[in-house]
Amino acid sequence: SLLGTIRTYVGGPGAQALQGLLVPLDVLGFIAIATLLGRMPGQLLQKILGSVVFPAFSKTRREAPERLDTLLLRMRLALLAVTVPLFFGLALFAQPIVDLLYDPRYAAAGFIMALLLAEDAIASLSAPYQNLMLAEGNSPLHALVMAFWAVARTVGIFAGFALAGVFGMLVGMAIGSTLMLMLSTGLAWRRDYATKLLDVAALAICGAFYAYIALGLEMPAG
Question: Which of 60, 87, 144, 153 lies 20 to 30 Å from 123 when distance is taken between CA atoms?
Fold first, then answer.
């Protein structure tokens, strides 16, 4: 799907191309390994959402539009129930996974992988809203949100690196994804999709865990 394609590019090759302008080759190698391993769950989740959530929204909008709010709430509850244990569980085990698959020279990839997984948890929360935009035929608005995400992550990469090196660059990417989530959520609120309490709770949970990963773990010396 278009959503999955954009997410895959912005989350992978596009971001790595920008990072390659800033970091030395060895660090870029760590990022490449972390991206290869860390982005797989998010890509799988997007495929599932594209094949299940989007058709469900489209059918409900055609046949029973009054049930759209209820369906959206159910989808977001299900997504949160999957996202928290999947992404955060893998983030906690990112270092052992990298240590198992690669020799000690690549240990730093584990910390980067953990941060990428935690960021994907935040970004995935907006997916139902974006699928709903497409189901409603509002592709220009969806394209605007995706363009905003690309710009926000790009600014986050360069500004974060300028402020705090590789760590700042990774955090800057996550801030860009958080801003995209806030934009998607704000647009949905304006259209009276009543999941405000869930939105706030989900962002608080994911933000707290990202902070735990970013501040509680350390990047091994590579």
Answer: 60
Cα(94)–Cα(37) distance, rounded to whole angstroms? 9
Q: Is the pLDDT of residue 221 over 80?
A: no
Task: Name the percent of the chain in helix, strand, coil, to the closest 5.
Answer: 85, 0, 15
Q: pLDDT tens digit string along 139-190?
A: 888 888 888 888 898 999 999 999 999 999 999 999 999 999 999 999 888 8
- What is the greatest pairwise CA distance in the chain? 57
Residue written as token pair 């730093």: 108
Q: Answer whether 220's CB lies under 8 Å from 132's CB.
A: no
Q: Please state, in angstroms and rounded to a whole number, the distance separating the CA atoms of residues 166 and 68.
A: 42
CA dihedral 181, 187, 192, 198 (to 10 degrees): 10
The CA distance from 143 to 147, in Å, is 6
Q: What gap in Å lies between CA 92 and CA 163, rounded to an integer?
A: 26
**Amino acid occupying residue 129:** Y
In the chain, the amino acid numbered 55 is P
Which pTM value belongs to this model? 0.88
* CA distance from start to end of the chain: 37
- Provide the residue type at 142 as one letter: H
**Please, what is the Cα angle at 100 between 97 and 106, to 5 degrees?**
85
